[in-house]
Amino acid sequence: IEVSVEPFSAQIFYLNDIGIHQILIDSIVKCDISIQQELCNNIILAGGTTNIQGFRDRLQEELQALAINQIHIYDGVPEKRQYV
């Protein structure tokens, strides 16, 4: 089975929810502008769902599509991430 965009696109399943990339950006822009770039440079993935193959790359692509080019996504502690 080959999976493409389905795990990342709530709209395909008729869900009105927004994606994690949009939630992330909405959270960052609600913070003081003086720390927004620092927040973009320190995104940390945690939790079992972030272990989905391609999650990190897709998140980065989605953020870059929103013109957020200067980001850094850390994988946290990969061997223990599913327990966080």
UniProtKB/TrEMBL annotation:
Pfam families: Actin. Transmembrane segments: none annotated. Actins are highly conserved proteins that are involved in various types of cell motility and are ubiquitously expressed in all eukaryotic cells. PANTHER family: ACTIN (PTHR11937). This is Actin.
